[in-house]
């Protein structure tokens, strides 16, 4: 049992270091890690209509938290929100030109972090790590 606690602590420590490093890099773009995650999600879904509810599910956050993130991003000029044409009770979230302008720099920050994460690992070790992390993620999702 102690081994499980040790692994959980290691994941937490890795998460904290990653988040702090990404926040430092993203500061020059006037973004936080949470805001970066929202933009990344929207870039992947750019051909689809995305609502606040979908962002909540993706981030695993509560409605008020996501509203705060989106409002801050709107005030910074990265997003726009409008009433959903199909359901006026929902808001559709749209990327702005400013978001597209910082996309390349965001990707560069992500690439640097990814390189640091696997520094010194072989291709085989990276593949194994990716497989195991995927399993751990699914295990955690299933227990929710």
Helix-and-strand structural type: mainly alpha
Within the largest sheet, what's the order of strands?
Answer: 1-2
- Number of strand elements: 2
Overall shape: globular
Distance between the termini: 20 Å
What is the N-to-C order of secondary-structure elements (H for helix, E for strand)? HHHHEEHH
SS field, number of helical segments: 6
- The mean pLDDT is 89
The assembly state of the depicted protein chains is single chain
Sheet-strand content, in percent, reads: 5-15%
Biggest sheet, in brief? 2 strands, antiparallel
What does the radius of gyration come to?
17 Å
Low-confidence runs of at least 5 consecutive residues: none
The helicity comes to: 55-70%
Write up what this structure looks like:
- The protein is mainly alpha-helical.
- Helices cover 69% and strands 7% of the residues.
- It contains six helices and two strands.
- A hairpin with a 7-residue loop joins strand 1 (79-83) and strand 2 (91-95).
- The protein is globular, with a radius of gyration of 17 Å.
Tell me briefly what this model is.
The protein is mainly α and 144 residues long. It contains six helices and two strands; from the N terminus they run ααααββαα. It has helices spanning 2-27, 33-44, 52-59, 63-75, 97-117, 123-142, and strands at 79-83, 91-95.
């Amino acid at each position: 049992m102690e081994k499980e606690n040790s692994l959980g602590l290691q994941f937490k420590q890795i998460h904290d270091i990653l988040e702090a490093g990404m926040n430092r890099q993203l500061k020059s773009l006037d973004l936080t890690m949470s805001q970066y995650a929202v933009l990344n999600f929207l870039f992947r879904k750019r051909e689809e209509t995305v609502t606040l509810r979908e962002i909540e599910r993706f981030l695993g956050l509560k409605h008020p938290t996501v509203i705060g993130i989106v409002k801050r991003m709107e005030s910074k000029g990265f997003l726009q929100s409008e009433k959903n044409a199909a359901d006026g009770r929902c808001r559709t979230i749209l990327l702005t030109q400013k978001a597209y302008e910082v996309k390349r720099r965001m990707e560069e920050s992500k690439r640097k972090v990814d390189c640091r994460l696997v520094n010194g690992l072989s291709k085989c070790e990276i593949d194994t790590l990716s497989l195991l992390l995927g399993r751990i993620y699914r295990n955690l999702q299933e227990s929710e």
